[in-house]
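Following up on my earlier thread - several people asked me to post the actual chain instead of describing it. Fair enough. Here it is, all 168 residues.
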Amino acid sequence: MTTLQNVPEALISCINQEIALVAQFIKVLEDEAKILESGQPDELVACTEKKQKSADQLAAAAQKRDQALNDSGYPADTAGLKHAAHDTPDVSLAVDKLFDLAVTARRLNEANGAAISLLLRHNQQLMETIQRLATAGENGGQVYDASGKSKTVSAPASQPRLKPVKAG
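Reply from S.P.:
Thanks for posting it. Predicted structure:
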């Protein structure tokens, strides 16, 4: 069991570890934003894996911090963290920095999520357009799905059929 004299030090150590991990997470989110802005999202899968690894590390660090809060006699939640910050000025400084970084990370993550949603909607609309055009062509509805397999799609009855146009 941790002695009360070491509690702020142990808690500050845990919070500082979280601060470093949130800073890493922000870097990954900034990289993700650059990929999304580039229009070349091929690197997005690798970035998503880094993001997941970073999120897992943050979750483990939060558990460690919660344990340090419990060892200190505080609840293992945001209220406990705020209470510990209120009681100890050094903890307060670390908590303020952690909260500031968390706000930045949340904003970046939300912005990236909105960009990804927009890209997904755009891609869905493109796929629908391609499928409609494919049903109007000579091959009558042969398209490729996301896995690269061909499939036949049929045009809705309400969709007008296009007639081939000959030049000259």
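The domain at 7-119 is CATH 1.20.58.300 (Methane Monooxygenase Hydroxylase; Chain G, domain 1). That should answer part of your original question.
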